[in-house]
User: Fold this.
Amino acid sequence: MDSQIIDARGWACPKPVVSAKKMLEALTEGSVTMIVDDEAAKENLLALARSLGCTVDVEQKENEFYVQITKKGCSLTIEEQHTGNTVILITSSGLGRGSEELGAILMKSMMFTIVESEEPPGTVLFVNGGVYLTCEDSPVLEHLMNLEQRGVEILSCGTCLDYFKLKEKLAVGQVTNMYAILEKMNKSDKVITL
Assistant:
């Protein structure tokens, strides 16, 4: 039986969960022990193990948690839902309302998660302040380039790029218009707005 240990101390969400799932997928049988240093990461790993039907043990050593997930007869499919022709509409450079700093952190985490997902969306549309994410110096530029390499269509509103004087700084994807944006949304199976 294989056993892997991953030191995930200091890793931001969702990296510990994504790494654990990938390691479990690579094992025929065995366990993955994630060392994390915050309560949220521990709880997320417990939720992952339960959703997969794997056994899990947690040992706390001072401020660290050793979460051992054992793969033996677990499915490794989290309520599989096929995204089909999903479109994600991004309307700002941050995720959520409240703190702009937190919004930027959450958006970076969301983009990482989308890149790591087994079924990424077919198209990601950027409008209003969201177009900043597709331009030079974007904190998520590498993630968007990875998505584009995987065949995800990255489209930025031309009117928005012009408004913010960013058209010359577009670094990933293509310029589009509101008619094409509406067509993409109308023809999709699902639209998710962030």
Notes: The domain at 86-193 is CATH 3.40.1260.10 (Hypothetical Protein Ychn; Chain: A,). The helical segments are 15-26, 39-52, 100-116, 141-149, 158-163, 178-187. Residues 78-83 have pLDDT under 50 and may be disordered.
